[in-house]
Amino acid sequence: MLKKTVGLITFACALTWIAASLRAATVDSQISDRVAKAASIVRAMNMADDRRIPDELLQRAEAVAVVPGVIKGPLGLDGRGLVSERLVDGRWTAPVFIQIARGGWEPQAEGAATDVVLIFTNVDALRTLEEGTGLTLGVDASMVAGPVGQSIEAVTDAKLETAIYAYSHSMGLFTGITLGGAVLGGDDNATHGVYGPDITARKVFLGETILANATVKPFIDAVQRVTIGRKVTQR
Predict the structure, then answer these.
(1) Do 195 and 205 touch, CB atoms closer than 8 A?
(2) What does the mean pLDDT of the chain come to?
């Protein structure tokens, strides 16, 4: 009887381990897919001459956030992405995983998916994410629809004094959008899954203790590539 009980316990433990392994593999696959899609969007940033993110804006970028496949549902936006911050020496940190919720924009139809790109020119907005608090776009940090084209000379905010510039991305082209009421928050499960259970957004953004592992390297390489040769940000 004891042997049978032990056998059942062992079998149950094995099933639990297998289920956990399958869940972990699924999560890893989802994260890798998210990173790959985000990296592809970044590479498209300076490809289309007339519908691209201007060089002047990329020069001033303190952080870049990409959320692939954001869906507009009945409760607002829903999507998961990642954000990397530029260090004072011009390098980019490993990304923190984020999610976007609430808010919305027109004329996107409910159920349609669109890639969202946020260019931060004020790094203070990221401190809210570090603290584990949701960042309400347009409230906690100023935000406008981002300009497109090779130059920003024609836009009202030519001095780039707004904290965040927002874009939608479709078929390789970028369009400025406003995301009224949208909230950015941390995706802790993904961040912990990639870097470890004790790693916080603050530790990632410090850039000294977190090395770019194979999972997130494609995103960092893509951001570095589209900003290579551009001036280092000054803080």
Answers:
(1) no
(2) 78
pLDDT band at 42 (very low <50, low <70, confident <90, very high): very high
Per-residue pLDDT tens over the stretch 197-226: 888 888 888 865 566 688 999 999 999 998
Q: Where are the alpha helices (DSSP H) in the chain?
A: 2-43, 55-60, 124-130, 188-195, 201-206, 217-227
What are the residues whose beta carbons fall under 8 Å from the beta carbon of 120, sequence distance 6 or more? 61, 62, 63, 64, 65, 83, 85, 126, 163, 164
Distance CA 20, CA 38 (A): 27
Q: How far is CA 186 from the centre of its chain?
A: 10
Residue located via tokens 């400025």: 176
Span 8-31, pLDDT tens digits? 444 444 433 333 333 334 457 889
Q: Computed over its alpha carbons, how large is the radius of gyration of the chain? A: 20
Taking the model in full, what pTM does it have?
0.81
The answer for residues whose C-beta is within 8 angstroms of residue 198's C-beta and 6 or more apart is none
**79 vs 67: CA distance, rounded Å:** 6
| Distance between start and end Cα atoms, the chain | 71
Pairing of strands 143-145, 164-170: parallel
Distance from C-alpha of 41 to C-alpha of 223, rounded to nearest angstrom: 10
Write out pLDDT tens, residues 133-187: 788 888 888 888 888 876 665 454 556 678 899 999 887 788 888 887 889 999 9
For residue 52, which amino acid is it?
R
